[in-house]
Amino acid sequence: MSENSLAPIEPAATSAYDALRPVLQRFVDLVLTGEKPAQAARTLRPHLKQPAVQASKWLARPDVRAALAERREQLLESVGITQHMIVRELARIAFGDPRELFDEHGQLKPMHALTAEQAAMIAGVEVEVREDGSRITKIKRWDKRQALRDLAELGGLTSSAPGGKGSVFNIQINL
What we know:
This protein is mainly α. It folds into two domains: 16-80, Arc Repressor Mutant, subunit A (Orthogonal Bundle), CATH 1.10.10; 85-147, no CATH class. 45% of the residues lie in helices and 9% in strands. It contains eight helices and two strands, in the order αααααααββα. Strands 1-2 form a two-stranded antiparallel sheet. Strand 1 and strand 2 form a beta hairpin. The longest helix has 17 residues, at 62-78. The termini are far apart. The model has no long low-confidence stretch (mean pLDDT 85).
């Protein structure tokens, strides 16, 4: 058999996104731009009476979930954000010690003197100037409990994370 008589072998799709049908690629794109899945389904299939049902079916597909994860990662990489950076910031919020924001006299440290770890704890700063010219600086911290929840989810410790270890309850009803 000659080399020319062999049919060319199609290369496997290199990405989960490229392997999707165009309508599913568009769905992934719309969801990643912030559109609600039901609205994305309505945009793609305007004749549907229940676009939320179609969106749910699409989101349940392993290939669509893989494409969403792949595109999210690509999006983050395109702006220089890594998973390591996200986890590090969440850890700074979750495990930051508010005592580090103050000097040995109990005064709030100047903003320029804070380390990256200390500054990451701060969600906002409000400076109030009184009539007598004195200033009151109010510091608002990020929600420590939410940061812990997010870290637990990323670590697979909760049921909301894929493969999470959430609680399982077996209920038996005898009639």
